[in-house]
Amino acid sequence: MGPVDLASRLRARLDPSPEVVPAPGDRLAGVLVPLVASPEPAVIFTRRAATLSRHAGEIAFPGGLVDETDAGPVAAALREAAEEIGLDPGLPEILGALPPVHTTVSGILVVPFVGMLEERPRLAVGEGEIAEVFDAPVRQLLEVEAERTWDRPDGRRWTGWVYEIDGRTVWGATGRMVHELLEIWRREVG
After folding, report:
1. First to last CA, the chain
2. Which of 100, 115, 129, 131 has the most CB atoms at less than 10 Å from its CB?
3. Which helix (H) or strand (E) holds 38?
4. Domains recognised in the chain with CATH numbers
5. pLDDT per residue over 48-78, tens digit each?
């Protein structure tokens, strides 16, 4: 399947212009889910630096909080992707948004935007925030997808989608976003 057909199939199931309002006390953020079409469909992830105060060392998508210069969450996602991984904001074709994800720990409503790239561009890790950028083929994500329950140190339980990729664990809010993308993939792409 070519990039145009793939983009068309995914766009049909994504929200073209999400209207999201964070709850009182929550903050709004946008992330980019970079989807590379060729030679094999793959998703680009980041591993956050171990020195960060929030979500240190976790696997994530490039993005961040909407600030006063942004025209909304998609602008924040593209701005942060440029800062974090050196992605030219004009390269990804924004196909639409996955359902928003609320991070209970940090009180952030995250809007994930799927951005199609015909091929993987050259990327540069931003200083300080990002430790690593890596790709995971969609085929591999489909194969390793698992729903897990973990006992947390605070005594509570966490249940969600987990992806073990080459010694890295995708889980939490990012895992929910990946699961939503894969649900659309299974229905629309096969």
Report:
1. 11
2. 115
3. strand 27-38
4. 3-137 (3.90.79.10)
5. 876 655 655 689 999 999 998 888 999 999 9
